[in-house]
Every structure is written in structure tokens, then in C-alpha cells.
Amino acid sequence: MRADSSLPIRGLAALALLAVACGKSEKHEDAAAGAAPPVPGYLAYVTNEDSNELTIIDTGADSVVATIAVGTRPRGVKVTPDGKTVFVALSGSPKCPPSMPDEECEKLKVDKSKDGIAVIDAATREVTKVIPGGSDPEAFDISADGKLLYVSNEDAGTASIVEIGPGTVRATVPTGREPEGVTVSPDGKTVWITGETDHDLTLLDAETGMKATSVKVGLRPRSVGFLPNATRAYSTNEADGTLSVVDVASRKVIGSIKLPGEAKPMGIAVTPDGKTIYVSTGRGGQVVAVDAATDAVKGSVAVGKRPWGIALTPDGKKLYSANGPSNDVSVVDLESLTVTKTIPAGGVPWGVAIGPRP
Question: pTM value?
């Protein structure tokens, strides 16, 4: 999606206070008053782009346990490994789909004071602060040591490297145009960023933040996923319905996987054992399973409308799909590759992240 040019971020402190206040007033719990606390497990955090909320789902019961206000146009979402902190990318830029003419997009209101990364205390379910994330932050990932965020700035053609502790932008690095997906490699050494308009991946050195190289892939890449052993990376290419297979060591494309039907590949998730790659297909309305050993499609399941973000439970048994226009989340049993439950969410669910209960 296009957005307007970069401007300074302002008013983050005011936004943080507003988000906290809204979170307190709009938060609700499904559990009955006085009920015993849930057993330890995992929570799925779903960003709702249009309703400015975060839906929290108990993956054991597959039910919503809370909904909190987080800020404007939330998209990317990540959880720390200990489950204590949730980060959400916020944007004051308007939604400009590819079908919208440039001149129409430029007429829409932009409020850069609403750009930032919301920091949420997972135990209290409150926004504690909003830190800078560059212009129009969309997606991001967390460094291996948990100290940095690498953030795509969609409208600026850059990535911001953010120090979480002090909440400051350490560096801004040029990327391919319209950067979106951001993934840190399993070894923590490189950061892979998709460039939708330049049809490439920008690779950054995770320690120095310097650009290492770029790799041309399929048309309009959206996300990157890795095999756990970091031998291969896969980019989801929306416009040509493919996955590009990249050899990590040589940083070269070594294959292309065509997905079935009207697939518009978006999100990607790889099972913990590295055997299967799951891809959401946007307007294709499905999640597709690919055999990592053969690069062959081995199945698919229809979910809601325009599935975007997807995430797996740590045991690799269930997948959660954020279905934008459906305003819901599909729960997929991966052994049978069937939808076992559909959970209502907020307006236009975008991203999903799963972490341990704090």
C-alpha cells in the first residue's frame, strides 16, 4: 500500500497517554467475574487495522479474553519470547490500495504524530508508551538480543533501527521501495526486508545496520520466512502468486513455487520442525501448505476473506489466520488441515503473533 512522504514524529507522549486511557476504558474480559485464572498457555495477539484495537485470544480455549485500544491503524505485531511485552506498529498514514490513483491517495489526511510502536504490558494489557518507529511503520522484527526493533517505513522507502530501552531511532537505512515484511534470520545475523515496488529483498547486517545486499525475487514480495536451520528463505510474492526460494548462504534465488488458483501470497509461517511452510493467499481466501523437502504444494484450506497475517502455536499443531474483510480469525488444525473454529475479532484483522501467557 502506498502512503505519503516521511515527516517528523510528534506527539508520541500524548498518544501513549490517550492509548492507555482508551485501553482502560475499552478493555473487556470474557471470563466470568471471580472465575479461576486460566491455566498457563499461549495467547494470540491480533491487530485490527480499522478499529484500532488488539484482540487477545486464549489458544487453549480458542476464545477472546480481552480487546484493548492501542492506537491508529495497527498492523505489525510481535511478542517477546517471555511473553511479557507486545509491540504493535501504528500509522497515521491513510490506507491507499494499489487500485487507488496517486492523486486520490495524496488528498487523504496524514497525521505523522500517530506513527510509532506501541509498547504493551502483556500482564496488565495496557499501552505503557509509544516509541518512534520511523515514518508509516508497518511491519518489524525484534533483534536476537531483544534490544532492537527493525521497522519497515512503507511510505519512506527506509527501515528504522530502534533502540527499545531508550525508545530512540539509532539509524535509518534505505531499502527497496514500499518496504513491508521484516524478518530476522534464525541466527540473528541478518535482517530481511521485502520491497513491494522494487520486487526485491534488502538484507541488513543486524549488528551494524548496514545494507549487505539485495536480492531480486518475484513480483510484489510481502513477507519472508526461514527454515529453522536457516538454509533457505522464502518470500511470498503477491502479484505473481509464487514463493521465491532463496539459498541463504549464497543469497541467490534457487527456485520458484507456484501456488494454486487465485493465490495472492501474503503471510508466511514455517513449522518448528521445518517440514511445512504455510502461506496465506489474500484474495485467494486460503492458507496453502508447502512441503519444504520437495517444494511442492501438499494441501490447502479455505479460511475467511483475504487472509493476511498468520502464526503457529509453538507445538506446530494449530495455525491462526487474520481475515481482514471477514473481521474474524480462523483456527486451523494442521494435522487435518481443517478450520476448527472461527473467532470474531475487530475491524479488519491484519497481523497475528503468538506468545506465552505472561
Answer: 0.88
